Amino acid sequence: MEKDYFKDRSLESKLINSINIGDTVYICEKDKQRSASKIEDLTKGYVVRRLTRHDHPRGIKVEIKGTNAKTSIGRVVYLVRNNKILYGDK
């Protein structure tokens, strides 16, 4: 079971209808799930493909293309809207 250091993630990161192709997101890659504890440990990019078909309590799994044109797969932790990171209510 992965540790969830990102308790302030928004509900939208867990809802399939909130994530669209082209959205900018921060994801946690599979190999970093146990150790990622701050935003610098996450990967930023835009959504190329949604891999999860339904809402998921730990975030929707997506494939992203990062700033270095590398593709990565992981679960959405934060969404970026209007150049601002969406946090939860906490």
DSSP helical segment count: 0
Share of residues in strands: 35-45%
Straight-line distance between termini: 23 Å
Radius of gyration, taken over Cα atoms and rounded to an integer in Å: 12 Å
Largest sheet: 5 strands, antiparallel
Low-confidence stretches at least 5 residues in length (pLDDT < 50)? Answer: none
Indicate the structural class. mainly beta
Apparent shape: globular
Number of strands: 5
The helix/strand order is EEEEE
Residues in helices, as a percent range? under 10%
What is the average per-residue confidence, as pLDDT, rounded to a whole number?
A: 89
Write the layout of secondary structure elements.
Layout: E1 24-29, E2 43-50, E3 61-66, E4 71-81, E5 84-85
Antiparallel strand pairs: 1-2, 1-4, 2-3, 3-4, 4-5
Annotation keywords:
globular, about 0% helix, five-stranded antiparallel sheet, mainly beta, about 90 residues
Your description of this structure?
The protein is mainly β. The chain contains no helices and 5 strands. The chain has strands at 24-29, 43-50, 61-66, 71-81, 84-85. Strands 1, 2, 3, 4 and 5 form a 5-stranded antiparallel beta sheet that branches. A hairpin with a 2-residue loop joins strand 4 (71-81) and strand 5. It is globular. It starts with 23 loop residues before the first strand and ends in a 5-residue tail after the last strand. The model has no long low-confidence stretch (mean pLDDT 89).
